[in-house]
Specification:
The structure is a homodimer. The first copy, chain A, is of the alpha+beta class. Chain A contains 7 helices and 19 strands. In chain A, a hairpin with a 3-residue loop joins strand 16 and strand 17. Strand 4 of chain A pairs antiparallel with strand 4 of chain B, so a sheet runs across the interface. The structure holds pyridoxal-5'-phosphate (2 copies). Chains A, B: Its EC number is 2.6.1.42.
Chain lengths: 356, 356
């Protein structure tokens, strides 16, 4: 494995005084991991350096053609002061699936997990400890060739930056209101939907904006072909408890395969719930709702962990779910996931990785 | 109108010695235009400064969420030494349509045309003069908020950079071989297809790569819903001469409304050709080909102007068009467009704008 050179900052920043006001993703720690790719050399010069600006040629491809991928994960501080990562190898595996789709040279997944651990080790004091807070980790790769022409890049950068965060939604664990999007499409079969890449988020901005204007927290995307099948929410996968079944849209290329989604499915099944990954039409959901069979709905994602959905607006129809309150399955998943992540429950699944 | 502050370089670069070897988009001139947007202030501080690197926070949104748009246009040098732009107001209008879709604050189109003229005026000696060469102009906007969370940016940058270019395709005016893409999708109705934005190009990289591996120059995209209707080529719109009709896919949201496309349609109609903007299925095209009615095919775009298509591969079927030679309509369009652009023909359409 390559050696990671470390240069520590001489000007450490002040850490946030009030951990209840962290918000999400606007404060960054003292250091970052950086590594370069150059054709012929492969990924080289892995290093941890003081957090600071990067210099780009104005023609750098990432500013024009969106050849960039990223990951999102967290480090958690346990009550006894240990730092834990949650299934980091899954994120690095997904990063490589995104790389593959975006014609970005693959990274060494095991090495990237080591880099992550080394960085988090150095930034350990930045992991906040207040209830629900954590250190958000953002590995990302972007193309830097100064070249105005659409071709896969030959020069790229890989960075990891860290941000102490609180709740992703101001609502916290309170149920959110979600708007079913009828006009805009985020991703379609054959496109980039399954990759964690800039394009999908760029495509979501306008719908998200219009939803917020109508006081909805995020949009629920429908498939781009028939505009009928439920896909995912802005930055979460979705689950519905319909009768005795827990349904989540199958992974068919247009949605992100969430690590939280995967973990929810595994936990639910270990508890004996029937979880089905399948196509779920919005009209089928509405029918179940009318029959009183839609008992719970929730989103799953690293940022919000579990986010109960209290209201779904589909055209003129409003579905009020579980009286706008958090349901038992959502609560149980939240308690268990956060329990494992923050080391409050035994990690029976072997999901956490301690940073020494 | 805001004043554009000019700071000239003290270290002018050497201009390319051999204009036959310019290639496309890898050489940049001495200066660039820059302007900033900050919430509350609007677009401000327009300036022309020496071409050089920009500093970005690693959390800058453009590196993660692809909130970025661009334009592509050219400045041409006439035989008597004048510098001409081609319908620049159309590019700035399209830029604003892209901005609107990407939640980017609109720019003042007339002011941007002035900025362009001022920059090209300063870089006039960089416009190459060899046959088929020009100065490619790349206006672009990207989000710079250091914020890891998916929201429209409050801080952005607008730049214009210039690159002396030769032919976009090594083939020049020789017919290119194009591959009909069956698996990957570039954009879908409801998505970003009509905007000139990073996402669409990121989505195209892999298909383009696979096409090149099979010795095809670019791919022809089919629609994302039925995967049947012809959309456009990598960086060009497409036209087909079928019997007495010239057909080009209608603008229905998923393809880029090319300025060259628009100009071709206007020229063809002014010459009395019947041009139809409509849905065109790939199987209809193949049928026409089999009946001997497919007489010509060509792509249109700023970079390549007119690029005749000599071969189209659709699954196992290969369509050889016009014996792999340039057709009469393609040639006539090329001659007239380049004639107007380089000032060799009278500009009867009023399309060129001289840079004084
Ligand atoms: C579009 C999208 N879907 C789903 C998720 C959930 O994925 P994960 O559970 O891996 O965080 C995310 C991200 O974080 C996302 O951005
Ligand atoms: C996807 C795409 N389609 C079509 C075109 C042609 O547009 P224009 O004629 O304005 O250059 C371009 C660009 O240059 C393009 O990138």
């Amino acid at each position: 494995m390559q050696e990671i050179k470390v240069t520590l900052t001489k000007n450490p920043k002040k850490k946030p005084a009030d951990e209840s006001k962290l918000g999400f993703g606007s404060i960054f720690t003292d250091h970052m991991f950086v590594m370069n790719y150059d054709e012929g050399q492969g990924w080289h010069d892995p290093r941890i350096v003081p957090y600071g600006p990067i210099e780009l040629d104005p023609a750098a491809m990432c500013l024009h053609y969106g050849q960039e991928v990223f990951e999102g994960m967290k480090a958690y501080k346990t009550a006894d002061g240990r730092a834990l990562l949650f299934r980091p190898e899954k994120n690095m595996a997904r990063l490589n699936r995104s790389n593959e789709r975006l014609c970005i040279p693959l990274v060494d997944e095991a090495f990237c997990v080591e880099a992550l651990k080394k960085l988090v080790g150095i930034e350990k004091d930045w992991i906040p400890t207040a209830e629900g807070t954590s250190l958000y980790l953002r590995p990302f790769i972007f193309a830097v060739d100064p070249q105005v022409g659409v071709h896969p890049a030959k020069h790229l950068m890989f960075l990891i930056i860290c941000s102490p965060v609180g709740a992703y939604y101001p609502e916290g664990l309170n149920p959110v209101k979600i708007y079913v999007e009828k006009n805009y499409v985020r991703a379609v079969r054959g496109g980039l939907g399954f990759a964690k890449t800039a394009a999908n988020y760029a495509a979501s901005l306008k719908a998200q904006d219009e939803a917020e204007e109508q006081s909805y927290t995020q949009v629920l995307w429908l498939d781009g072909v028939e505009r009928r099948y439920i896909e995912e929410v802005g930055t979460m996968n979705v689950f519905f408890r319909i009768g005795d079944e827990i349904v989540t849209p199958a992974l068919q290329g247009s949605i992100l395969p969430g690590i939280t989604r995967m973990s929810c499915i595994e936990l639910l099944r270990s508890w004996g719930y029937q979880v089905t990954e399948r196509k779920l039409a919005i009209d089928e959901l509405y029918e179940a709702y009318q029959k009183g069979q839609l008992k719970e709905a929730f989103g799953s994602g690293t940022a919000a962990v579990i986010s109960p959905i209290g209201q779904l607006k589909w055209g003129d129809e409003i579905m009020m779910i579980n009286n706008g309150e958090i349901g038992e399955v959502s609560q149980k998943l939240y308690d268990n996931l956060t329990g494992i992540q923050w080391g409050k429950l035994p990690d029976t699944m072997g999901w956490t990785v301690e940073v020494k």
